[in-house]
Specification:
single chain; mainly alpha; MetI-like fold; 68% helix; MetI-like_sf
Length: 284
């Protein structure tokens, strides 16, 4: 009973801030009680959403974020699964050394400046592909997939080999279908990373048309907290003077627009998430 009570309390503590933001985004900003404690909108209004979804900068950032997620996630899955399949074969020449090489990169990196120099030397600065290639591989995710593949019965591959299948056919038609749980887990992780990413947009791009939704959100939040300049949220609100919106309601709405789509992915992949994490982490 104590455990359930603790979990309920933890749920309330973590869920209420998100619910509060959601309610504020749906409440009329001209309401005198706006910003106070409320469990539901006292004056329901979608004007803030209408204002946000009419702004060209936000719409463009949504397109950039969707594009990097749609392109980046499949490429990440392809690279991780192929590398994991190769490293799951202990008969591979230099197997231990290759694994140690990849694990080494999890603990040591060149740092921000060398990374920036590499990205610049590859002519990826101010390019959409700077969102895709530098982060296309995650060694931790690869280890999860590799461990999952190592736990699969060897008889499946042997039976496919007896039928005349080569390594590519075995990988695509035998291994991938039974790795759906762990791959679905990696899909969710990768989608979250791409959707919420803002730092790479902040340091690698200067073109406003390449800014991601999270980067625009950070810009709005930062400018809103600066006293000596008009916030981007307030500017956006002023452009729609006929609508009862405010800088605060715009901030809440942009936060929801940036958060809701990725949250909606959890119910779709939930049945695979726990299974993929547990089975993928059984071995080291």
């Amino acid at each position: 009973m104590i455990v359930y009570g603790f979990l309920l309390l933890l749920f309330i503590v973590t869920f209420f801030p998100f619910w509060h933001i959601f309610i504020l985004s749906l409440n009329d900003a001209s309401d005198p009680t706006y910003g106070q404690f409320m469990l539901w909108p006292t004056e329901f209004s979608l004007d803030s959403y209408k204002t946000v979804l009419k702004d060209s900068e936000i719409l463009n950032s949504i397109g950039v974020t969707v594009a990097r997620t749609v392109i980046g996630v499949p490429l990440t899955l392809a690279c991780i699964s192929m590398l994991a399949y190769s490293l799951s074969k202990r008969e591979l020449v230099g197997w231990r050394s290759i694994n140690l090489f990849f694990v080494f990169t999890m603990y040591f990196s060149g740092g921000l400046i060398p990374t920036y120099m590499v990205v610049r030397s590859l002519n990826l600065i101010d390019s959409f592909w700077v969102f895709i290639f530098p982060g296309i591989m995650s060694i931790f995710w690869m280890i999860l997939v590799r461990t999952y593949m190592e736990g699969l019965p060897k008889e499946m591959e042997e039976a496919a080999q007896l039928e005349g299948a080569n390594d590519i056919q075995i990988f695509l038609k035998v291994i991938i279908p039974v790795c759906i749980p762990v791959l679905a887990t990696i899909t969710l992780f990768s989608a979250i990373v791409h959707w919420n990413a803002w730092y790479d947009s902040y340091i690698y791009t200067y073109n406003p048309n390449l800014k991601t939704l999270s980067a625009v959100l950070v810009k709005i939040l930062n400018q809103f907290q600066t006293n000596d300049m008009l916030s981007a949220a307030q500017q956006l609100a002023n452009e729609q003077r006929k609508m009862p919106v405010s800088s605060e309601s715009i901030r809440m709405t942009v936060t929801m627009v940036a958060t809701l789509p990725i949250i909606l992915m959890y119910p779709l992949l939930q049945k695979y998430l726990l299974k993929g994490m547990l089975i993928g982490a059984v071995k080291g």
